[in-house]
Every structure is written in structure tokens, then in C-alpha cells.
Amino acid sequence: MCGLSKAKEVVDMAVNFSHMHGSGSFPAAAGQIRVQCGEAHSASRTWRALRTKAPPAQAGTSCFPKTAPTCTAEHSKEERAESEAMRKCLQLQKQRNENISSGNMERTALRPLFRRASLHMPRLAPSSALVSQPTVPFRLRSHTQRNITRSFSSCYPRLRLSAMPHKEENSEFTPEFYPDFPSGPQFPTVELETISLKKLESNDEAEKDRAFEAFKTRGFVYLDLAGCQNGDTILGGSTDVARGAERTFSLPTEEKMKYQPTNKSLFGYKMVGATNADKSGTPDTAEFFNISKNDMIVEDSKMTRQWPEVVLQHKPLYAKYCKAAHSTGMLIMDMLADKLGIDREEIRQRHRIEEMAGDHIRMTRGPPRKTAEMPEIQTPSHTDFGTITVLMNWLGGLQVWSESSRKAGPLEPDVPGEWLWVKPKPGCAIVNLGDAAVKYTNGVLCSGRHRVIPAPGEQGKYPRYSIVYFVRPCDHTRMKTLKGHGIPPADDMEEEGVEAKEWIYQQAMGLGSKHLGK
Fold first, then answer.
1. Strand 478-479 and strand 498-499: pairing?
2. Are residues 151 and 230 in the same domain?
3. I need a surface site. Which of 242, 300, 318, 445 has the fewest CB within 10 A?
């Protein structure tokens, strides 16, 4: 019971914190744990026994003792262990109180407390006593989590926990253990501009100028996510989304195949080998799952397709991630519109978050490298189809072509240049423009050509996970050049243009995708 008690106390800290701020519910970081406060009850006979040895808590305060009971040799081993756990919890609570009194603790600071609690949650065996306890609705990620959540529900009848993805014992997504990106002439890398999202939000003209120039010449930038709410959501949420991706890809193949795209949709599962890596038909080596933005941000009854339960369990996380990434993409597009003399509304009406569009989170898993001689192609050479892309990855593997390209489609063999590695940069997303941005601006902006292979050096021994958010035009908007003082005239300016959904579908088919519905 030591671990469960410690976890319970950390939750109790959160309950008190919520009461202090006059709120019955609050988000912990990226909405990972929601708490609706209620009266705390004892969790076990051991817990009750220990409470009786300490002064009773006053009304409106934590039910946890102010001091840990002193145990002697007469006490059981469990009680002595419980006392030690309580002592450590009280140290945490003391630190929390000091932080609150000094104004140094915000609600997002609860996130590491809950993470610390999860480290001490015991692995409970199935128990009919636990099963029989009245519980509130909750979504589960594992048998262990089910038992723990039931235990907490019995402790807090009006306490609701929404479990979020976490690191499993045998997880293959372990960014804390990844080796550094290798150095040396055999690993040529590209130098990308690092743009501050915070400075773009504050309308810093010098930063906007640097970003505009980068998107005209390379089409790729590092986006420093520090210091702003959307950046924090993307940075913190991407790890949780990746853990959700690991669980999704661990489903049996026959189960994943039930969610292949249909009816010209790009949403759902793509198995390994479903895309041609080159003109000779070499199969790609990565699998991915595209999760529709529109289905994540609406209630379940309004979703347009079926999703695996493992996806629906974490729908609030995915919805929040979609909104933050979409907002970030539109901030960048606003900046580009201003630089080119395009009315912002011309861009925004083509990318309204509530409208049906091809926007989605793409979870990708690429296998470790098999050979040192020939790189296996996880994602073949291409330019992105949409308007703007926000990528989070933890291992190398992404490569860009050394020469800028403003032509959609596969890379022609006679185009000069070489592939350059893009090193992951801590605290940064990798942002690039897609073909829609090139189309809207008549080639002023650049859609950088890229591909993905296994990570280099020692990093190549690990499976490669990446989380991408694609901002794409709304399905029924027309693809044509927009008007602006910085855009040269084009023949299609007065034409109606093809609908974005059809345009993107044809782009995907041209890439050699064999898994799409027709």
C-alpha cells in the first residue's frame, strides 16, 4: 500500500490546490488529468490505522495527517513503509505550500506532481473488492491503470481521473535514452534558421523578416516553442501523443487494417509497404496513422468515421494538440500574408479549424536500420501537399534536398544536389511549407523537398517515432493563386480552381500511395 498511498497524497495536494483557486476542475498541463473535487475518504485499513495515530485534520483541509506517525518495532513492515512514504509526501506538500505562498506555483506545475505519483502507483492484482467499488466513468489504458483508477475512485467518490498515455515498462519510445546525433563529414547536415514562436506572437518585425526569408528560400525552419502557451502544448503534448502512437501501432495488424482510408480520405492506417519508395516500386518501410482534426475536436456523435478505442481514449489530448498546432500554423500564415500583401481573411477563410479539411495528426513509426549500405526509405522523396506542417521528432532521419524546389511530385533523377540531414533540436519543432502555400503565392514561397530514412549512427538502432500536424485547406475551397502586391500574376487568378480535397488526393496518388480509398 505504500505506493498507492503516496500517489493518493499527491492527488490530495491537487485537490487542495484546486480549492484554493476556487475551481472545481482544472487542467494539469495539457489536460492530462482532470480533477473534480469531493470529500476524501480512506483508501485502506492501513491508511485508516495510520490516520488514527495523527491529529485529525480540520474541516476544509487535507485529510492527510500534518505529521507522519512514528512507527516502532511493534508496527508491521507495511505500516513502517507507509509511514516513510507519508513523510516523503509531507515534504512534497511543504514544498508546494512554500511555492504557493511565494507565488511561484502555477497550475501547470501540478503536472510533475502527478507524474511523480504515477511512479509510485503499485501494480495491483485483480481484486473483486476493487471491482465492486462504485466508480465514475473513465477511460483506461491498461489493466494496471484500471485497478489503480478504481482504487482512486473508491477513495474519492466525486474524483474523476482521465488517464493519459504514459511510458509502458517495455516501451520502445524512450527519448531520454537516445544517443546524440552523430557528427562527421559522412553526415552532412542543413543549417536551418531558428525562429522564436514567442517573438512572432509579439509581432517582432526582425523575427518576421527572418522567417519570411527562410520560407522563401528553404521552406524549412526550426520553431523555438519556449515561452508561449501553444508552444508549451506542442512541446509537452508531443511526447504524450507519441506514447499514444506506440500503443496504437502495437495493435494486431488485422485490427489496424480495419481503419484504412476510404472514399478518397487520407485518414486512418497505412501499413508498411503501402507506398512506393521509388519508380521501380520499392516499398516504403514505415507505418503511420492519420487522425482527423475534425473528428478529434467535436463530440463523439459528430465524428465522420470509426476510430480504434486506443485513439478515442486520448481524444481530449489529441484535440488540444490539434488546436495548438493549427493556431501556430495560422500565426505563421498571417505573417506570410502580411509580407505578401494578401488579405489575412483570404488565408483564414481557407483554413477555418471548424470546417471539414484534410488537417490531421500523423503518427509515424519507422523501424531501426537493418543495413549500413543502403538506407531503407521510410517516407519517399516528396513535398508536402498542404499549407504548413509542424513536426516533432526525437531522432534523426529527416533529410532535405540541398537545392530548393517549387515543383510538386517525385524528385527527378537529373536534378542536381544531395540529401542533407536535419538534426532534431531540443525545444523546437521543425516547420515547413507545403504545395498549397506554393500554389497560393505562385511560387514565391518554397515547399522544401524531403524524405525520411532510419536515423544515422547509433540512433539508427532505435525505432523512429514522429508526430506531425498538417494544416491543409478546407475541403471545398478552390486551389488557385491569391492576389497580393508580393505575388506575380498567374493565369489561374481568375479561374475557379479545383477543390482542395480532390487536389490533395491527386497529389497523394501521384506519390505512389496504394492504400487510399477511391
1. antiparallel
2. no
3. 300
Residue 114 lies inside a defined structural domain of this protein: yes
pLDDT tens-place string over residues 412-444: 656 778 999 999 999 999 999 999 999 999 999
Is position 16 within any domain? yes
> Which of 200, 277, 324 minimizes the C-alpha distance to 454?
277
Residue with cell 467535436: 298
CATH value at residue 220: 2.60.120.330
Q: CA 239, CA 465: separation in Å to the nearest integer?
A: 10
CB atoms within 10 A of CB 263: 9
- Please state, as a whole number, how many other Cβ atoms lie within 10 Å of the Cβ of residue 24: 11
- Which amino acid is present at 11? V
The angle subtended at Cα 474 by Cα 472 and Cα 479, nearest 5°, is 80
Global confidence as pTM: 0.69
Q: Of 303, 283, 302, whose CA–CA distance to 292 is shortest?
A: 303
Total domains in the fold of the chain: 2
How far apart, in whole angstroms, are the C-alpha atoms of residue 504 and residue 389?
14
In a shared domain, residues 8 and 108: yes
C-beta separation of 351 from 336 below 8 A: no
Angle in degrees, CA 312, 235, 104, rounded to 5: 110
Boundary residue ending a domain (121, 155, 189): 155
| DSSP-assigned letter for residue 27 | B
Buried b (16+ CB within 10 A) or exposed e, 467-496: bbbbbbbbbebebbbbebebbeebeeeeee
Write out the three cell numbers for 103.
Answer: 507565488
290, 325, 319, 317: which is closest to 305 by C-alpha? Answer: 290
Provide the domain limits for residue 436: 175-510
Summarised one tens digit per residue, pLDDT across range 329-347 is 999 999 999 999 999 999 9
